[in-house]
Amino acid sequence: MASSLLALIDDIATVLDDVALLTKVAAKKTAGVLGDDLALNAQQVSGVSADRELPVVWAVAKGSAMNKLILVPAALAISAFAPWAVTPLLMVGGLFLCYEGFEKLAHKFLHHGSDDAADEAAKIAALADPSVDLVAFEKDKIKGAVRTDFVLSAEIIAITLGTVAASPFVTQLTVLTGIAIVMTIGVYGVVAGIVKLDDAGLYLSQREGAGGVPSMLRGTGRAILKAAPWLMKALSVAGTIAMFLVGGGILTHGVPALHHAIETISQKVGGVSGTLVPTLLDGVTGILAGAATLIVVSLAQRVRGGLRTA
After folding, report:
1. Which of 22, 117, 177, 303 has its CA 20 to 30 A from that of 205?
2. Quick one: which H or E segment has residue 86?
3. How far apart are CA 272 and CA 132, in angstroms?
4. pTM for this one?
5. Sign of torsion, CA 214 216 221 226?
6. Spatial contact of 299 and 256, defined as CB atoms under 8 Å apart
């Protein structure tokens, strides 16, 4: 009895060890999606009145939790009944990451700034117009953000599933559930902080009183107001770069010949440079894959549009 109990405790400890390790690995691999998730969701709730920002973030967070309640069981079912599909799904997720990243670059460099300015002006006009149904406006914002979250959550779950595919069911369940909970709380906690950052800066910058402390608070508030837009830009840039690195890494690992070639190049280079080669080549692969996918998708959309007008 005692030996059985010790064996059980040892099994539980082993599972917890595996869970901790795999969760750490999965979190690292999904960092690219997470960075983009933060930027995208913070942008999704922009244009909402200040006193409604947190309720909107909360509503999107609940939608995100529902997304993961669908995705986690689906991932477990795929792992149990169609394990052969894990790698193809992972490759599709990686390719989508690369495509999404390159689409952002294409939009940045090929679209006119006047288009974005017009879109922002339309949002401001909608908020100022008393005839606009702000409840419907909010609902549209929430639906759009939840749809965005579903795609990004699917990528996160797919990457995590690829990490734990060979593990026992209990480990898969625990890691997938843990990642889903941590990502949801983490992402929307940070998003809430980001969307209210400017309010915090404004509050501090308007503090009254003489002396060192009030002056320091006002200076901090002004610094926050200046830094907030740059923080959003930094998150967006970091997220895009990470998407190419993570997506490209998934693709190179999914093609054994390519993965072996990268390892060979890394060994030949050697030293510190050799350790950077795989990351660099993963990023290059991600950019090329994203460009190729965007071209194919754009051509398919043009053909479809031509068929509809014919």
Report:
1. 117
2. helix 86-110
3. 58
4. 0.67
5. positive
6. no
